[in-house]
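step: validate -> pass
step: tokenize input -> pass
step: predict -> running
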Amino acid sequence: MKEKVLFITAYVPHKAAAGEKNTMIMLNDLAESYDIDLVYFKYDYDQPYQPERSNVRVLKVFKNSKAIKFWGILNLPFLHPVYSIRFSWSKLITLKKLIGNTSYKAIILNHSNVFFYGKFLDKNTPKILLAHDVIIQRALRTASKLMQNVCRLSERLCFKLPNAHIFSFSQKDVDIIMREYHLPAKVCLDYIDPDIINKQVEYVGDYYMFFGDWTRKENYEGALWFIENVSPLLKEKTTFKIIGRGFPKDKMNNPNPLVKYEVMGFVDDPYKILSEAKALLSPLFNGAGIKVKVIESLACGTPVIGTAIAFEGLPEGFESSMLLANTPGEYVKAMKQVTTNIAVRQKLRSDFIECYSKDSIRHYIEHL
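step: predict -> pass
step: emit ->
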């Protein structure tokens, strides 16, 4: 009989968004060694998660909505909202009843939204905190001094759980945790989708690509900036494919008849399209944390053109395939520089995948 792991995550695991897809792959990987009790939060419009492994059991689905998130803030008015919007005392009581006297090898708290629950769960069981973003970094870029201080106090409180092991998704974020909170943390690299591993670089098409979850403000604002500011400078026929859920077509204003934007929506397997693109475009001007779409593009052998924020936290040694561009003119110049050489792309793909083949959370738990 396998040991058990309790996995609490703030979102429904699914393939439509990078973080949620990483959660799906992580659950499948953990199930190789452990039986998983899963708790997740779900909006009414979300499709329920269907486990892909028989030993992943959905223990509880907590309902989520704007009203429920507001109630969470009222439950913990002294915390920054990132740490309170998924919390309620009644949910905590329900969770503790469901767990009962179950003995877990570890409790995984996935996303900062659910860290505070760890304060009240078995102190003797190791807590794995997966910080997809270090929230103080985002606050330092966008928030007032008051909210920065509230964020710093809240994040420190939530990191300091009994028997906690902190992970984030890049060395940069691990360094921020040490600098801001003087707490040790480890790098937990994103899982590379098996669909990428199984792809080969054989052909480069005549198009560029945007890829992401367009319900996120920083993603669609960057894409719309590119369409409005870079498109007018292009003097040749150029095609861009936009993949991902929720792209705001009603806000798109393309002023150049030579430029074509194909909004393709969610695609089950986008990696053939990504591997054949001339480059992925990532014009991000806000946000924090490592950008999964950039990881996936490099793992496909496809160069990336993006801002400094797009490349934060990525490993060194791949700079020639990460073309920095912050202005419209720099994007036009970089688009002319990307390589379509198959051999170069194949080497990028193999080198990057090898670089990202590190120990997983499963292996870390096995050695606790």
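step: describe -> The first strand starts at residue 4 and ends at 9.
step: cleanup -> pass
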